[in-house]
Structure formats: C-alpha cells, structure tokens
C-alpha cells in the first residue's frame, strides 16, 4: 500500500502538533510547517523519519511556494492526500482601540495565508489516487468564533468568519476536480492561546478596562475546561479519512451550552447574554 502524505501548517504546538503526531502514528508521511530552523530541528528529532519540516511563514508567498516545490518533488507525481490549514493567530481587544496593524496581521495569517497555502498545494491535491480515483482534501481550522462573535474578539472572529466563507467557496469551485474542503471549528481547547492573546493591561487606559478583564477571565476559565488538542486531532483525521465527510465539524466542550444553544438564539438575545456575562456596563 502506498504511504499517504499530508501537509499541516503550524505544527510547533497545540492542535497542529497533536495532529502531526496522530497522523505519524497512523503511518502517514507528514510535512509540517514551522517558522524557524531551531523548531524544525527539534521537531524532526522528536517526530522521526516520516516527519519533514517545512520552514515557512504563511504570510510569505515565496516561502510557501518554495516549500510546495519541495513537497511536489518528494511526491514525484503521487497525490497529496490532505492539506490541513492550521496556522493561525489570535489577539483579543476592543475594536475601538485595537491596533490596526495588529488586525491586519490577524487577517494576513488566518485568511490570506490560508488562501496562499491552499493555492500553492492545490495542484498536488487534484492528483487522483491510482487505487481509489479520489483526489485530496483541504481541511481548514476555523473556530466557534467563525459562527459566534464575542465582544473583544472582533478581529479574530471576523477572520474566522472569512475562513468559513472561503472554505465554502473553495469547496464549490473544486467539486469538478473532486477536491473536498472541510471546516473544523473547535470550541475552547486546552492550549495557552488566550494566555498569549490576552495582554491583560493593554486596555486599562480605556473605558473597556473592567469588561475586557472580565472577558479574559472568562476565556481563561473556558480554556481550562476545553477539549485536549489530541481530541481535535482525532476529529481532523476522521474527517480526512471519511469517504463522505461532513462539510463542517464542531468539536466543542460542553456542546449544548457553548454551541447548540447560542446558535439557536437571536442576535439580540446573544447581545444580552454577552452583556451580562462580561458585565459590559460602563
């Protein structure tokens, strides 16, 4: 049986790292992107023979194209089974004050970077497997925030809303080629994403100080109760290997409270819930 191959962006930590480890344990060859040589060397030593580090920043088209060429040569005409667009960034803040360049950076990584990577690897995904006549899949990592916009997450949530729309358009455009595009939209995950994104004192000079701190406390508490990265990795693998995958998966801890109910509420009801939970009064 021919060894299957996947490309995963952002494998240094969190969901990407857990996903790389899971695919390797299942016998896949994994090309995983990192941003520097030091991370590449560490991961290669840790993950072993079937892991191939790709040093690239998803914002840099020339780096992506060079890495895509490396993968193309390694495949030597064989198909790429899956591209997992996992690389992303999150920074919280009130839209009234959040730095414009910071918002631009979030979109450059989460949205434009995803498009660049998809376009670079797409020719390899269109190659059909000789035995199954199936083309590859694209799996885009979105978030609950791709459907539900919380206060102080405007930049991040809007970037993930864009990922949802881009994924749907790509999926419909690529149907004639047999390339499926799937969204994974996790809820809270037990990674230090909000510890990195919080910057607790950043907005103390604004009228949002109290509400923003309440939001950060809420986010950090939710992080502790979130799913393990390994659980999200299992969902990604199952979606990749499914003959008839769903277009979207929502691995969310405490799913009724954090996903099903909020999705059933009207916008005005959600407004009131967020206002109350974060004590938004000034």
UniProtKB/TrEMBL annotation:
CDD domains: 17beta-HSD-like_SDR_c (cd05374)
GO molecular function, one term: oxidoreductase activity
SUPFAM superfamilies in the cross-refs: NAD(P)-binding Rossmann-fold domains
InterPro entries xref list: NAD(P)-bd_dom_sf (IPR036291), Sc_DH/Rdtase_CS (IPR020904), SDR_fam (IPR002347)
Domain of life assignment: Bacteria
UniProt record, GO biological process: steroid metabolic process
Ranges that cross the membrane: none
Family: Belongs to the short-chain dehydrogenases/reductases (SDR) family.
Record-given protein name: Oxidoreductase
